Predict the structure of Putative HNH nuclease YajD.
Amino acid sequence: MTEYKTRQQKQRFYKSGPWRKLRLVALERDNYECQQCKKKGKFSKGQNVHHIKEIYHHSKLALELDNLETLCINCHNEEHKRTFNNIGTKKGRKVWRDERW
């Protein structure tokens, strides 16, 4: 079974032919629309294909169409907790400050 634990393993996966083909299928299925925005009654073009169940923990679902959804960049960042409010909250990182001096 293939694992996607390291950065190199994930990069290799996301550059692979099977992923690129399946990604296009997911984008076309969702009509290039962000599915999270759509649930909120908004419209946003989606460019990111997101694994609902992360490949780090569920490597068997990496190439399953039912495990994919199209998201805009903002919703994708929210799913991965990469919002402005979370900058610097990991252990060992400095807290973001607007003033740098």
DSSP finds four helices and two strands in the chain. The chain has a mean pLDDT of 86. The helical segments are 7-14, 17-29, 35-39, 73-79.
